[in-house]
Amino acid sequence: MPAPSGYGADGQHAWTGLLPAVMAPEIWVLNLELYKMERPKRRREESELVNPREFMSFWCLDAHEATRVKPSTSALIQRNIAAAMGVSNETISELEDVCGRKTLFTGQEPKKKASLYKMNEQPPQSELQCLKHQIESNKKREEKPSFHFLIKNQMKYTHTDVFMSIVPEGANSRQVDPQFQVPQPNVILTVEVNKCLLHGVYGQTAKERDIYLVLGSQALTELRDKIKCTSDRVIPGDYSNMSYIDPRTLQTTGEMFKSSFFFIENVFYNDMRLADNKDYSRPIITWAKDHMSETEFTTKEMSEQTFFDLNIRLGRHYLFTHQGNCEHSIVFTDLRLFNATDYQDVRLYPVVANARIRSRDVCQACCTFSAKWCVSNSPLIPCEPTLLCGKCYKSLLFKKDGTKTSDFKAYHYVS
User: Fold this and answer.
1) Which of 333, 302, 298, 320 is nearest to 218 (CA)?
2) Where would one find the signal peptide in this protein (predicted)?
């Protein structure tokens, strides 16, 4: 089946709305090639191929032992410095008052760390040029919305403060049962999972992402179960005749169809934990043998592979696919040794380091409440389809006795 080309009026590829439940392999490969072509010019650099297990073995025994030691208190650090320099503790305290971190603050800074990036005036007695340019840039962004969006699209991170403190203070204050202790030595990988990719709008969707911290010893299925997507919350079927049913009692597509795969370095990691799960990679590999014979694709079971077993490139975009054709970009952005400041309870991983803001869609009738229904085939709706809240849905499309005003169709809507 030849894959069509071109874009529709809505900016998406013409065949986007015609995809079957399981995407045809030739379309999948073509989509992958277009996805690579549409990557923005300002992309992060990719690292060399690295294996997390080999990365962990590069460090000597002393380095691994150092990761088990919790950071010392300031008083103990002062005593150690005094002993190493052969001076009194009073001398070290005096040096800290003169040269310590406190001297970098004037006392007029905002208490909240996030507010430091929004300062409108430079503190007195401060001559930092970077702070001066930051304040000027903030003012320019407020005056010119176009400049604000331009800068935001070029930023590597949209939430700077997230990457300054991922594990909150006091997270490891309680004792952990030995059976739930994170096995050591270990590594932590930072994984970005982007919003479902739509062809033609990659530059925007790549900024909307969730960030997870995963252990090298964890199976890939643990990350797969943690990923949240709207397509897993869809309730299929027309419920216009059963509006009284509580949607929380209905089965979602995520509960019905659990097949998925990670595509990393030409390897398909399929989720085959359930007997009725489908191998999405089989038709793709069959097609690739005839059309991409120079590239070898292999398959492995997701539940049998840990992150230690992966060969990855930091900064490269890999693929996670579920629900037939719902695609997400997966990026490994960091790899480091597990240490005493991280969560020690293995049950807390994968840790959600940053969750993107989920926007809501409002009712197209009242423009106030969140949309709960997607209605089509009704003469009373302004467009096809129309999103309605619960109140507008009942008052517009039903009579007083509860019967329908027309033969319309209504689907539960999630955003």
Assistant:
1) 302
2) none
Q: Rounded distance, CA 293 to CA 350, Å?
A: 37
**CATH architecture of the region 23-55+172-354:** Roll (3.10)
Whole-number pLDDT of residue 320: 94
Residue with tokens 């595509």: 263
Q: Are 211 and 383 in contact (CB under 8 A)?
A: no
Mean pLDDT by 10 residues, the chain (415 residues): 36 36 49 48 72 92 81 77 87 86 72 67 73 82 81 58 48 75 92 77 62 94 92 89 86 91 94 92 90 89 94 92 89 91 89 81 90 91 90 90 88 87
Exposed (0-12), middle (13-18) or buried (19+): which is 276, by Cβ within 10 Å? exposed
CA distance 28 to 282: 12
Instruction: Name the packing angle between helices 281-291 and 25-37 (round to 10°).
Output: 80
Residue 323 burial (10 A CB sphere; 0-12, 13-18, 19+): buried
Q: Is 200 exposed, middle or buried (0-12, 13-18, 19+ CB in 10 A)?
A: middle
Instruction: State the Rg of the chain over Cα.
Output: 27
Which residues, 6+ apart, have CB-to-CB distance to 362 below 8 Å? Answer: 368, 369, 370, 371, 387, 389
For the purposes of burial, counting CB atoms within 10 Å of the CB of 180, is it exposed (0-12), middle (13-18) or buried (19 or more)?
exposed
Residues 6+ apart with CB under 8 A from 220: 262, 269, 302, 303, 305, 306, 307
Q: Are 353 and 188 in contact (CB under 8 A)?
A: no
Cβ–Cβ under 8 Å, residues 350 and 166 = no
Q: Are strands 187-194 and 209-215 parallel, antiparallel or unpaired?
A: antiparallel
Q: What is the pLDDT of residue 273?
A: 92
User: What does the DSSP 8-state code read for residue 84?
Assistant: H
The answer to whether residues 329 and 201 touch, using CB atoms and an 8 Å cutoff, is no
Rounded Cα–Cα distance for residues 265 and 286 (Å): 18
Q: What is the DSSP letter of 365?
A: T
pTM above 0.85, yes or no: no
Q: Among 98, 117, 119, which residue's Cα sits nearest to residue 108?
A: 119
Q: What is the pLDDT of residue 98?
A: 85
Domain boundaries, the chain: 23-55+172-354, 72-162, 373-412
Q: Which two tokens stand for residue 407?
A: 């033969």
CA distances for 151 relative to 30, 45, 116, 354, angstroms:
31, 19, 18, 21
Report the pLDDT value the prediction gives residue 153, as an integer from 0 to 100: 64
